[in-house]
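ok trying this again, last paste got cut off
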Amino acid sequence: MKPFFAAIQFLTILPVPAALTGNGRALERSVPFFPVVGLLIGMAAAGFDLAISRLLPPLSASAFTVILLVALSGGLHMDGLADTADGFFSARPREKMLEIMRDSRTGVMGVIAVLAVLILKITLLTAVLPEWRWRLILLMPLAGRSAIVTLMTALPYVRQEGGLATLFDKNRSWLSVFWTWGLMMMAGWWSAREIGLAILFFSAVTAILFALYSSRKIGGFTGDTLGAGCELTEIAPLLVGAICHHAGLTLL
C-alpha cells in the first residue's frame, strides 16, 4: 500500500507518516492510484458541499467548495495552470517557453487563466440543480487525475535537466490509462447514469485535446502541464452538467 499513500502525499496536503510512503520507489509506482486519490478528494468535497449548501446560497456554497478543491491539492495544479499559461501564450520559441514556465513568478496570462478557471467552476456549479451538485463534484477530481495519467503516458517528458515528473517515467503504462478511465466510467455510471458516460466522454476529449496542444507547443509534457491538464479537465463534468440541465435533461 505504500504507492497508495505516496499518491496521497503527492497529490494532497494531507499529512502522511513517512513510514507509510516509503522512499522514491513507492512514488514511482503510485500512478495507478492517482484516480483513486481523485475519487477520495471528490467524495470529501461532495460531502463538504452537501453540508455547506444547507447554510449558504448556491453561489457562496459553490465558491467555498471550489476553494476547498484547490486547497486539498495545496494549489499544486492551479500553480501548474498559471505557469503553463504564461509559457504557452508567450509567443516565444519552445526553449523560451520552458524557461518561462520554470520561473516562479506569475505573469498576466497565468493570472487570467487561474481567474477564468475559478470563475467557470463556480458559475457552472451554481447553474445546476441542488441534487446534481454532489454527483458532479464527485467526478471533477477523478476526471482531473485521469487527465494527469493520460498526459504522462501519452507524451514524453521534455525537460532535459530533469524534474520531479521524471520519477513517473519508468513505470508509464497504457494499462494505467485504461484503468483510470475505467474507474471514471464506473463512477460516472453509478452517480449519473447516461449523463455520467457523457461526462466521461467529454473529460477524455478534453484531456486528449490538451495533450495534442501541449505536444504542439513544447513537444511533450512537464509537471506544469500536468497541473494545467488536471484543472482544465475538471471543468468538463460541470460543463456537461450545466448543458444537460439547461436542455432540460435529468441525471436519473
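PB: full thing came through this time. The two ends are 36 Å apart (CA to CA).
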